[in-house]
């Protein structure tokens, strides 16, 4: 699997680039984030905390290479410094408390949106020229809606007016977090509205892309030949048309995922969902640079892993990439 | 390719995607579609709002008042905020920032992606590797979190900083698309030519390549505008832009911070989101027009299917009324109507057209012919003569754009039962296909599904038509079929791309033989192959035909191939059959002036060199056929009558052989051609 190995190397390289970017940015940007923070938390920071900050965001009088080595050492020890928005909790714990909420929510929503969007797109593409075509402008309207605004509308309709779902939070506060049924059902109940928001808002992109690719694929000779072969419609659509049409969707997965992740983060804020988005909001409000940096890295790693999964699916679906050349 | 190959030029259906230099702005045509027009109107509205809005704003958007949280009223069209600010005025001011940021950021991002995409795609090599790597890294980095980091490091930079940051996080996708396009343009003739004349690289990129990518650049720009406006709104919503500078995102930020939702102040947050969504929709509507230009298949699909759906509805209605406007639609003909059971396919007055309005084309125009069991019928014609369309029509493979079809396609199976293929229901047609009639397509590369193995593609046929076969039986059959066409049976698990061109074409023939059909239609099956392989495959085909006894309808522009292969030759011109004779007769005594012209450019088998003159002129545009004989403009025997009246295909006796020909020069059927000449004087 040479292709996958190459992709893996690329993702490692990208991760390295992202981390190094994180190292470089605060050092080249005008202003010194450490001094800013020390000033804002006047007197409340211990000397060790300030030292840790300096390692992460730049010491004025130190060799840049040594700083870089120190920086990596810190990362490997999971030491991202102390969060100021949640002072004095370490960044690692803050992120750790939020990441699972986001990870589960986004991955489920992405998979569902992809599957639903691609299936609907196939159907709309296959039945082009019928009333289903009306779905296309509708979906492009939906996919132009900012996620967070759509979230507000959903909250307005389903929580405030209809009172079907809770307005905010990730679970009922009296539940103990853990693997027990009442917690899980409460978490699922709270997740429905954010999930529906993310799925509906992100379906459009997959749907339109898949619809256009299906239409394009349908005039390919191999689809015409499949029809000429007298295969059943199901087989023609699935194995001949859709199977080829889905490939571009998978290869543009990276870009689409970026949108979905960005959108989900702001959606969480609206619903006060206890995930990464909400802590990013707090971090941004209080200029908590260590926390923002950690969030950026964590999301980047998540996105890279998701992309790699998409690559594996691509290689699985397209034998041409498996050619050893 | 042999000398007798008919000139393969195609004036009718040049692929629209190849943007020549002359029509580099043709994509603006796409703007005419109604969707695009609506998009442009919405966009114009918002642009005007951004320019003049603040002048008309009734209040200062930041000035507070005692009228807090008022719902919409005459004084405050969109109500007020918690601080008593006028939402309508905020919206008007916000339009300006949102649109300026969106457009400037998109402009900057597009410039970067054009530069990177063109340079990487054109120069290739290490430059390409590095730039592509950079683009790919930016593509997978999640853009919103990256933007958040950058904004928080540039706290006081205002809108200019936001524009810069959005551009940095948003250029990668466009550059990837443009790079791919540049790489394919780079290999095109006019670019090669410019390079050969030693033009400077920068000039080639600017003058020859970029103008041809304007449609893609425009489409990527519009997409980026939507993305930029959304990102700006998200950043504002996170409170990362200056919260006192009014943009639509800022309005939403204040609404969120002040819990507008909980207070039921819907007027506070609904307008801003709606405006963003509408603006984004207008961009995608405009992009629909451009996309359909870039990808002509989308356009064809849209145009064709609408007309088709209309035709279907009309037909269904007619059926309901009990009056189908088409000629005899009896499914099974009485035997006396069809006395000759050796005729396996009887095509009667087949008409087949596609396209609507100005593009309406009758590609197959009242074509009739018969094919006998076990015979090879060769159909020859230039590209655009309708010969491939005829092949598709016989297999009823005319989706998506067919608009008119009439006539009869009478098929008689081995048992002697006759059915009209055109009236078959979907399920009847599905059973008929491949079992009775199979098709070998022009290019095996395109006709084989790239993601399934050869074995699976044969297996699909067996499973669809031979439900009683076990897996093992199918496996044996597949190996046997591959053996028939000379493919080693261990290639069962090979994918099309793993086979050579010749092998792929053999595999196609193997698939075509899978169910032992009565008729195989071959549409230029060997055109793409080199002469040696072509010969091998043709010889094998003749052997298989003699062994298995199927009928072949062989379609090609290569007359010399037909001379060897076929029993009967039919010549097509401008969608009509102009001559149909036994091959020997045709070779010795072509009757139609067009056939004569074709054979004049054909080297004699005896070796005596004839001059290869070819036929001056080019085939007519099928959309605008002349009223008389379509060949008249190129015919050296044309008379006045030919200009006005279409000659019908009629039976005539030439050299004691019955042939069919459509030409006025043969007024008296029984007389040989020389006399016909005399008559013209
Ligand atoms: S009908 Fe007239 S114009 Fe047409 S081929 Fe015959 S002679 Fe020529």
Describe this structure in words.
The complex is a heterodimer of chains A (325) and B (681). Helices cover 75% and strands 0% of the residues of chain A. With 325 residues, chain A is mostly helical. The longest helix of chain A is centred in the middle third of the chain and has 38 residues, at 181-218. With 681 residues, chain B is α/β, with parallel strands linked by helices. Chain B contains 24 helices and twelve strands. In chain B, a hairpin with a 2-residue loop joins strand 9 and strand 10. The longest helix of chain B is centred in the N-terminal third of the chain and has 37 residues, at 87-123. Classes of the chains: A mainly alpha (325), B alpha/beta (681). The interface between A and B is large, with 90 and 97 residues. Iron/sulfur cluster is lined by residues 592-593, 629, 631-632, 635, 637-638, 642, 647, 663-665 of chain B.
Which key features would you list for this structure?
heterodimer; A: 325 residues; mainly alpha; B: 681 residues; alpha/beta; 12% strand; disordered N terminus; binds iron/sulfur cluster
Quick description:
The complex is a heterodimer of chains A (325) and B (681). Chain A contains 13 helices and no strands.
What summary fits the major beta sheet of chain B?
A: 8 strands, mixed
> What value does the Rg of chain A take, in angstroms?
24 Å
Mind telling me the C-alpha Rg of chain B? 33 Å
Strand order of the largest sheet of chain B: 6-7-8-3-9-10-12-11
Number of distinct beta strands of chain B: 12
> SS-based structural class of chain B?
alpha/beta
Oligomer: heterodimer
Would you count the extended β strands of chain A for me? 0
**Structural class from helices and strands of chain A?**
mainly alpha
Order of helices and strands of chain A: HHHHHHHHHHHHH
- What is the mean pLDDT of chain B? 78
Bulk shape of chain B: elongated
Question: Biggest interface pair, residues each?
Answer: A-B, 90 and 97 residues
Distance between the termini of chain B: 40 Å
User: Could you give the distance between the termini of chain A?
Assistant: 11 Å
The shape of chain A is: globular
């Amino acid at each position: 699997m040479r292709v996958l190995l190459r992709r893996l190397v690329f993702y490692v390289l990208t991760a390295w680039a992202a981390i190094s970017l994180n190292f470089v940015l605060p050092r080249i940007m005008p202003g010194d984030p450490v001094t800013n923070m020390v000033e804002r938390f006047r007197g409340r920071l211990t000397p060790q905390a300030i030292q840790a900050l300096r390692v992460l965001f730049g010491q004025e009088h130190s060799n840049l290479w040594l700083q870089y080595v120190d920086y990596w050492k810190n990362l490997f020890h999971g030491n991202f410094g102390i969060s100021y928005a949640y002072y004095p909790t370490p960044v690692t714990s803050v992120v750790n408390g939020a990441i699972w909420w986001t990870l589960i929510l986004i991955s489920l929503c992405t998979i569902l949106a992809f599957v639903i969007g691609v299936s609907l797109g196939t159907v709309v593409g296959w039945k082009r020229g019928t009333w289903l075509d009306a779905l296309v402008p509708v979906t492009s309207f939906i996919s132009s809606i900012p996620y967070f605004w759509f979230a507000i509308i959903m909250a307005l309709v389903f929580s405030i007016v209809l009172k079907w779902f809770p307005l905010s939070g990730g679970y009922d506060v009296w539940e103990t977090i853990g693997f027990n049924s009442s917690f899980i059902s409460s978490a699922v109940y709270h997740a429905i509205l954010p999930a529906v928001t993310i799925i509906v808002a992100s379906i459009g992109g997959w749907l339109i892309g898949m619809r256009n690719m299906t239409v394009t694929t349908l005039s390919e000779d191999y689809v015409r030949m499949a029809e000429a072969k007298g295969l059943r419609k199901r087989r023609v659509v699935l194995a001949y048309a859709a199977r080829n049409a889905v490939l571009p969707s998978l290869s543009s997965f990276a870009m689409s995922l970026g949108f979905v992740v960005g959108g989900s983060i702001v959606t969480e804020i609206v619903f006060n969902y206890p995930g990464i988005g909400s802590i990013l909001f707090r971090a941004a409000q209080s200029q908590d640079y260590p926390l923002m940096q950690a969030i950026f890295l964590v999301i980047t790693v998540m996105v890279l892993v998701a992309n790699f999964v998409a690559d594996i699916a691509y290689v699985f679906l397209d034998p041409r990439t498996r050619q050893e050349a | 390719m042999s000398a007798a190959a008919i000139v393969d030029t195609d004036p009718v259906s040049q692929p629209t995607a190849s943007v020549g230099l002359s029509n580099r702005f043709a994509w603006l045509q796409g703007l005419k579609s109604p969707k695009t027009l609506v998009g442009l109107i919405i966009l114009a509205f918002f642009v005007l709002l951004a320019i003049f809005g603040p002048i008309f704003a009734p209040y200062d958007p930041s000035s507070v008042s005692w009228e807090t949280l008022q719902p919409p009223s005459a004084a405050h069209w969109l109500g007020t905020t918690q601080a008593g600010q006028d939402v309508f005025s905020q919206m008007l001011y916000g339009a300006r920032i949102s649109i300026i940021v969106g457009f400037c950021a998109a402009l900057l991002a597009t410039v970067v992606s054009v530069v990177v995409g063109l340079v990487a795609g054109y120069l290739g090599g290490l430059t390409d590797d590095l730039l592509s790597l950079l683009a790919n890294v930016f593509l997978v980095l999640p853009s919103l979190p990256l933007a958040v980091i950058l904004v928080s490091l540039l706290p006081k930079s205002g809108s200019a900083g936001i524009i810069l940051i959005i551009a940095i996080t948003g250029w990668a996708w466009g550059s990837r698309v443009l790079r791919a396009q540049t790489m394919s343009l780079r290999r095109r003739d006019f670019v090669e030519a410019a390079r050969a004349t030693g033009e400077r690289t920068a000039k080639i990129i600017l003058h020859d390549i970029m103008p041809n990518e304007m449609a893609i650049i425009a489409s990527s720009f519009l997409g980026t505008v939507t993305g930029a406006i959304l990102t700006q709104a998200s950043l504002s919503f996170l409170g990362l832009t200056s919260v006192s500078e009014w943009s639509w995102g800022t309005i939403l930020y204040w609404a969120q911070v002040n819990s507008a939702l909980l207070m039921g102040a819907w007027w506070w947050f609904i307008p801003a989101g709606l405006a963003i969504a509408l603006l984004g929709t207008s961009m995608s509507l405009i992009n629909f027009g451009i996309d359909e230009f870039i990808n002509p298949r989308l356009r064809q699909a849209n145009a064709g299917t609408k007309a088709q759906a209309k035709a279907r509805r009309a037909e269904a209605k007619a059926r309901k009324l009990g009056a189908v406007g088409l000629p005899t639609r009896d499914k099974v003909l009485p035997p006396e109507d069809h006395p000759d059971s050796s005729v396996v396919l009887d095509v009667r007055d087949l008409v087949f057209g596609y396209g609507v309005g100005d593009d309406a084309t009758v590609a197959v125009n009242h074509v009739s012919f018969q094919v006998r069991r076990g015979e090879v019928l060769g159909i020859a014609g230039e590209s655009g003569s309708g010969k491939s369309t005829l092949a598709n029509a016989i297999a009823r493979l005319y989706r998506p754009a067919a608009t008119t079809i009439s006539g009869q396609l009478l098929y008689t199976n081995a048992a002697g039962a006759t059915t009209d293929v055109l009236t078959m229901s979907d399920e009847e047609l599905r059973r008929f296909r491949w079992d009775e009639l199979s098709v070998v397509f022009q290019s095996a590369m395109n006709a084989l599904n790239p993601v399934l193995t050869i074995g699976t593609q044969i297996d699909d046929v067996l499973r669809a038509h031979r439900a009683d076969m076990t897996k093992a039986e199918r496996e044996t059959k597949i190996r046997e079929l591959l053996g028939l066409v000379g493919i080693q049976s261990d290639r069962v698990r090979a994918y099309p791309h793993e086979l050579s061109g010749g092998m792929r074409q053999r595999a196609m023939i193997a698939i075509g033989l899978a169910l032992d059909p009565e008729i195989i239609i071959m549409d230029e099956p060997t055109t793409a192959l080199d002469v040696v392989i072509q010969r091998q495959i043709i010889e094998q085909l003749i052997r298989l035909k003699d062994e298995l006894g199927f009928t072949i309808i062989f379609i090609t522009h290569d007359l010399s191939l037909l001379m060897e292969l076929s029993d009967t030759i039919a010549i097509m011109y401008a969608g009509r059959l102009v001559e149909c004779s036994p091959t020997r007769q045709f070779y010795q005594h072509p009757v139609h002036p067009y056939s004569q012209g074709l054979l004049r450019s054909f080297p004699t088998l005896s070796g005596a060199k004839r001059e290869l003159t070819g036929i001056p002129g080019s085939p007519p545009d099928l959309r605008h056929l002349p009223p008389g004989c379509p060949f008249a403009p190129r015919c050296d025997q044309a008379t006045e009558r030919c200009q006005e009246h279409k000659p019908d295909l009629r039976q005539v006796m030439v050299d004691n052989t019955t042939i069919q020909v459509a030409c006025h020069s043969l007024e008296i059927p029984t007389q040989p051609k020389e006399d016909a000449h005399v008559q013209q004087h």
